[in-house]
Design goal:
Elements lengths: L1 H7 L8 H12 L3 E5 L5 H11 L4 E6 L2 H13 L4 E5 L14 E6 L3 H11 L3 E11 L13 E7 L7 E7 L2
Parallel strand pairs: 1-2, 1-4, 2-3, 4-5
Antiparallel strand pairs: 5-7, 6-7
Helix pairs in contact: 2-3
Bound molecules: S-adenosylmethionine.
């Protein structure tokens, strides 16, 4: 499946992030997953690959309708179950996020990511995971909400991008 996804979709955030998200799901076993900034869906399809076969459902959000259509078509083609929602991160509000999630992956332009991470952190289940893929190559910013701790920093040079994962403390 990894190979099929790679052949279908551009890996806008680097090819490793897809398999990494799948592994993250395998290790943390989320039932409900949310993604802000799904783009063409490289990460979405990897997450949906896990949730589809493990009684979960992935919800993927972006402001680009064309990308969401493309993602739906690719998910159908691969027999993966996911739900797409059009949203503008500038106006993220409670009605866009009606449930609680076990894992939330945020991959928006940096400033929007920070804004959204703070908002969606209320919608993460206790023990759930909140991840942000950010592009400043900096592990100190953002510091994350007080209850979070960084459990993993990922993405090597030369891209200088890191995936920083926070996990809610028990
Ligand atoms: C780095 S790309 C996401 C890549 C994706 N995760 C992947 O694996 O292919 C960032 C995404 O943020 C979306 N985006 C940018 N501004 C946005 C906004 N105001 N509201 C919602 N989505 C936005 C873009 O449409 C783009 O698809």
């Amino acid at each position: 499946m990894f190979k099929e996804i790679r052949e279908l979709v551009p890996a806008a955030s680097g090819w490793m992030i897809g398999p990494l998200m799948y592994l993250m799901c395998e290790r943390t076993k989320p039932r409900k997953t949310l993604e802000l900034g799904c783009g063409f869906g490289y990460t979405s399809l990897h997450i949906a690959y896990w949730t589809t076969y493990n009684t979960g459902r992935h919800v993927a959000l972006d402001n680009n309708a064309e990308r969401l259509d493309q993602l739906n078509n690719h998910a159908k083609q691969l027999n993966l179950d996911l739900m797409t929602v059009k949203f503008d991160a500038h106006n993220l509000c409670v009605k866009n996020v009606e449930s609680t999630y076990d894992l939330c992956h945020v991959d928006l332009p940096f400033e929007l990511s920070i804004k959204c991470v703070r908002l969606v952190s209320d919608y993460i289940q206790p023990g759930g995971i909140l991840g942000i893929n950010h592009w400043k190559g900096c592990l100190i910013e953002p510091s994350g909400p007080g209850w979070c701790k960084i459990i993993q920093a990922y993405r090597p040079k030369p891209h200088k991008n890191y995936l920083t994962i926070w996990q809610k403390e028990d």
